[in-house]
Amino acid sequence: MREFTVPVERLVEHFRKLPGIGIKSAQRLAFHILNMPREEAQDFADAILSARETVTRCKICQNLTDRDECVLCSDPARDHSLICVVSDPRDVAAIERTREYNGVYHVLHGVLSPLAHIGPDDLTVRELTLRVGHGDIRELIMATNPDTEGEATAVYLSRLLKPLGVKITRLAYGIPVGGHLEFADEITLSRALDGRQLMD
Questions:
Q1: Rounded to two decimals, what is the model's pTM?
Q2: Three-state DSSP state, 82
Q3: What does the pLDDT look like over 62-102, one tens digit per residue?
Q4: CATH 3.40.1360.10 fits 68-198, yes or no
């Protein structure tokens, strides 16, 4: 016997597909949507479709944007010779919250993970290499998470890009090993940025 009607079960199942959402949370979200006024539910659905259809990757840094160049890459006040390399767009938001960093970014959209069959070709490594090779870049800050995959990615990129004559640093370990940038507070991220170190 079904617990809910088919449309409700379908809605619950879609919410369950989201990361970190279990059955109880999915049900709570589904019933919240069902209790919304129709106009609000329509606006919510339109926001999802609009974001899905209009958000793309910045042609320079690969961060998410709704134009050719994101607001950070098109900002002349930022230091375009300093690139912070992160694995995920959420990491850009985390570092921006510190208000301590005035450079630009490069988003890899993942990390190297042989077990998950993710190699350099699955990330934006080529775009980063071209960017370093063609631009006046004085420093790359490797800001991947301090876990096994993040470390492996930082070391790989350091060895790949060092021959291009760019200074490569790594965030200091104010961030705990195994932690993730998106959950770090602003003070911890500020200290990690200030204490970054040269990579071998």
A1: 0.79
A2: strand
A3: 999 999 999 999 999 999 999 999 999 999 999 999 899 99
A4: yes
